[in-house]
Amino acid sequence: MNWVMRAAENVLSHVPGSGKIPELARRVRAHSSKALQDSFYDLMLEGNSQQATKRALLSYILDSFKIPEDDPRFLRHINIWHSREMVRALNRMGYVVDVIDYRNTNFVPRRAYDLFIGHGGINFESIAQTLQENCVKVYFSTGCYWRFHNEQELSRFEALRIRRGVVLEPDRLIRHSEEGALQVADGIIGIGNDATAGTYAGFSPVIMINGTALRDNHYEQADKDFASGTRHFLYYAGAGNVHKGLDLLLEAFAELDQHLWICSGIDKGVADAYSNELHRHRNIHLVGWVQPRSAEFYKVMRTCNYAILPSCSEGQAQSIVECMNQGLIPVVSKACGLDIANYGFLIELCTVEHIRNLVGKLASQYSAIDCQRRSLDARAAALGKYAEAAFPKCFREAINLLINTKGA
User: Fold this and answer.
1) Buried residues in 58-88 as b, exposed as e (16+ CB within 10 A)
2) In this structure, which CATH number among 3.20.20.70, 3.40.50.2000, 3.40.50.300, 3.40.50.720 belongs to the domain 218-383?
3) Residue closest to 186 by CA, chosen among 128, 110, 130, 146
4) 278-290 pLDDT, tens per residue?
5) What is the pLDDT of residues 61-80, one digit of tens each?
6) Tally of CB atoms within 10 A around 339
């Protein structure tokens, strides 16, 4: 039995692995034990609890309510901002909200809830089974359907083995089945587009909403050389180098004159397998992880015209949304969950040859003027459908739709 089959067979057998509470949460009553077992009760970030008539339970990211908004950690992932905005949106809808961590397996509801929103397969099903029948149970997704996700990842690692003879452990497998959670949910709200929703075939209703580009006016103030930037591409991504296609980019750019800038941590296996590409090619620049909105962050955003991500599975690639917020032109796979309209480019095949040809075409056929126009359009999209005000509005509309669907 090959290693991919062993990984697939073992995928469900492993379990994956604060700071001062900010002023906005001062009215929260915290129940403390271990970090993952902490809970926030009676959370009202917006409005008056005396006027709230309903109660919701949110099982998501607990640390979001411990990190002040001026703390650099607050910008490390949009999920932190989303979790707070979900509470604010629910407050505006008349809900007092209790929040627990999505990995908290000890929590037992001791109140009646009108609404339950949960994430992932760790505790959703066990909590949902204890709630009353009329409670609306919503699965909140930030990725593709978990089986699709795992299949795509295993395929990437098998392709790497065949292509380079390199055997690495999968880097972003979902190790807790989400099947039971999806089955008991009254509906799914996810971050993504129609391509993301399509991976949830067989489940209904499935509602996708866009992620968010947090406010930043640096783009309008920056002096960018679009002529030079035509030859510069940025890989800006989180964990999971092979999952997100960095191996493909390294092989492609090793045979190109165009420049690849890498703003990401490098997994040890990838660092060893691609030591030559990472350190001995003058056109491949390993920057490493950069703090969002830092001087180094802005420097690399000014250097590059394009943000490239040949990922195999995302809900919606937030790193690309942030790059669009800085005016970079998205060059993405379908799996990135982005509608790139007339300003971006689709990586139709995630192969080394196709990426190499596409990069060469973009660098040679699109002028500085073309890039500047697409940059302006990408920035306009970030300010429009990915604006801060768009997420809570779409989230409230999705919640109301699922409530009305269950009540019909």
Assistant:
1) bbbbbebbbbeeeeeebbebbebbbbbbbbb
2) 3.40.50.2000
3) 128
4) 999 999 999 999 9
5) 988 888 888 787 878 889 99
6) 13
